[in-house]
Specification:
The complex is a heterodimer of chains A (about 110) and B (about 120).
Chain A lengths: L2 E3 L4 E5 L4 E3 L2 E3 L5 E7 L5 E7 L5 E3 L5 E5 L4 E6 L8 E9 L5 E4 L3 E6 L1
Parallel strand pairs in A: 2-12
Antiparallel strand pairs in A: 1-4, 3-9, 5-6, 5-10, 7-8, 8-9, 10-11, 10-12
Chain B lengths: L4 E3 L2 E4 L5 E6 L6 E8 L3 E9 L2 E4 L8 E7 L2 E6 L8 E8 L9 E2 L3 E5 L1
Parallel strand pairs in B: 2-11
Antiparallel strand pairs in B: 1-3, 3-8, 4-5, 4-9, 5-6, 7-8, 9-10, 9-11
The chains are: A mainly beta (about 110), B mainly beta (about 120).
């Protein structure tokens, strides 16, 4: 069955520390991959996306993600976290063959301590 | 670009009442999606439209839920009758092409509370 796994429900990092949020997917085909961020009381905002080409993609707010086909992963990283990065982060996968739908992971809540 | 606009932001209603949520997608976007977000189930796709036509409503939980898109700039999600378990945040999103390829643009959601 199709699935997107974000194994960490909560992560706490210190301001200025590096961050990595994990995402794994289970599909036969090469998917389109996205990371979205949700601040409290707001909708989701796109951070970055991977369609093809260079497997390291840059996004907004200093985030980047790397697609690793062999590991079926698309982990999100940031070298130095700011307090304003505290939010919930969602990995999402799209497969054109499955009808133009996105499947979202369960989300990872990021807390930043000063 | 004003983004995806949803109304109301908050809705509190009593069990059994009809609820209508509204969405205005980004102009020029051919796809519109309705999602529901709860703590227990996360983000669930309810239904999506392509060029105002419902394509996949397999996520609509029950016959009490219905969605329409009478034109390219307006969609509604209706719950009749509402039940406490319908309490959730409902998001509308639009995309230029299919969500599998182009990014989704989300509204700020409608927080529904059914008492």
């Amino acid at each position: 069955a199709q699935s997107v796994t974000q194994p960490d429900i909560h992560i706490t990092v210190s301001e200025g520390a590096s961050l990595e949020l994990r995402c794994n997917y289970s599909y036969g085909a090469t998917p389109y991959l996205f990371w979205y961020v949700q601040s409290p009381g707001q909708g989701l905002q796109l951070l970055l996306k991977y369609f093809s080409g260079d497997t390291l993609v840059q996004g907004i707010k200093g985030f980047e993600a790397e697609f690793k086909r062999s590991q079926s992963s698309f982990n999100l990283r940031k070298p130095s976290v700011h307090w304003s990065d505290a939010a919930e982060y969602f990995c999402a996968v799209g497969i054109m063959e499955y009808g133009n739908k996105l499947v979202f992971g369960a989300g990872t809540i990021l807390r930043v301590k000063s | 670009d004003a983004g995806v606009i949803q109304s109301p932001r908050h809705e509190v209603t009593e069990m059994g009442q009809e609820v209508t949520l509204r969405c205005k997608p980004i102009s020029g976007h051919d796809y519109l999606f309705w999602y529901r977000q709860t703590m227990m189930r996360g983000l669930e796709l309810l239904i999506y439209f392509n060029n105002n036509v419902p394509i996949d409503d397999s996520g609509m939980p029950e016959d009490r839920f219905s969605a329409k898109m009478p034109n390219a700039s307006f969609s509604t999600l209706k719950i009749q009758p509402s039940e406490p378990r319908d309490s959730a945040v409902y998001f509308c999103a639009s995309s230029l092409t299919g969500a599998g390829h182009s990014p989704l643009h989300f509204g700020n959601g409608t927080r529904l509370t059914v008492t």
